[in-house]
Amino acid sequence: MTEDIDIDTDDLQRRMDGALAALKAEFASLRTGRASASMLDNILVDAYGAPTPINQVATVNVPEPRMITINVWDKSLVGKVEKAIRASGLGINPVVDGTILRLPIPELNEERRRELAKVAGQYAEQARIAVRNVRRDGMDMVKKAKAAGMSEDDQKMWSDEIQSMTDKTIARIDELLERKQAEIMQV
C-alpha cells in the first residue's frame, strides 16, 4: 500500500524556483545607478485605452552605462510615455527629442542607496516566506501520506528531502540578496 504514496518533490522544487525567479525579476527592477532596460518593466503607459508596458509601444535601448533611450513608435504616445516615467517614482526626468526620450540615470546618494538596500531585503523576505509556504505544503502532504499508511522511515526521508530543498533555496535567496545589496551600495 505504501508504494502508492508519493510526494511530488518536482512540483515543490518548481514552486521554490518560481519564488527565486520572481525575486530576480524584482531585483532587476531596482535602480542601482547603472542604466538597465529592466528598470522600465513595471511602468505601464495608457496606450489606446489599455495599460501597456513601455516595451510594447517603443524600443528601449541602453547606449551607455548611465543613459536609457526610448524610441516611441507612435508620436501621439510620446507625452503619455514621458508622463508614465515621471509618475513611476524612479526619480528620472526624461528629455524629449521628437519621438525619442532620453533618460539620464543620476548617481544615487548614500541615503537613497540605503533605502534601496532595505527594499531589496524586503523583496528577499517575501521570497523566503513564499519558499516556507511551499515547504509547509510539502510537509502537509507528508502528514496526509502518513495518515494514509506511510511508514515512519519514509515520512522522515520525505521530510528531510523537503527541508533540504528549502534550505538550499533560502541559501540561494540570501546569496542573491547579498550580491544585490553590494551592487546597490557600490559607489
From TrEMBL:
UniProt keyword list: Cytoplasm, Protein biosynthesis
Gene3D superfamilies hit by this protein: 3.30.1360.40, Ribosome-recycling factor
MF terms (GO), sorted A to Z: ribosomal large subunit binding
UniProt protein name: Ribosome-recycling factor
InterPro entries: Ribosome_recyc_fac, Ribosome_recyc_fac_dom, RRF_sf
Subcellular localization(s) per the UniProt record: Cytoplasm
Family: Belongs to the RRF family.
UniProt main location, coarse: cytoplasm
PANTHER family: MITOCHONDRIAL RIBOSOME RECYCLING FACTOR PSEUDO 1, RIBOSOME RECYCLING FACTOR
Top-level lineage group: Bacteria
Species of the source: Oceanicella actignis
Residue ranges of every copy of the Ribosome recycling factor domain listed in the record: 23-185
One BP annotation, GO: cytoplasmic translational termination
Role of this protein: Responsible for the release of ribosomes from messenger RNA at the termination of protein biosynthesis. May increase the efficiency of translation by recycling ribosomes from one round of translation to another.
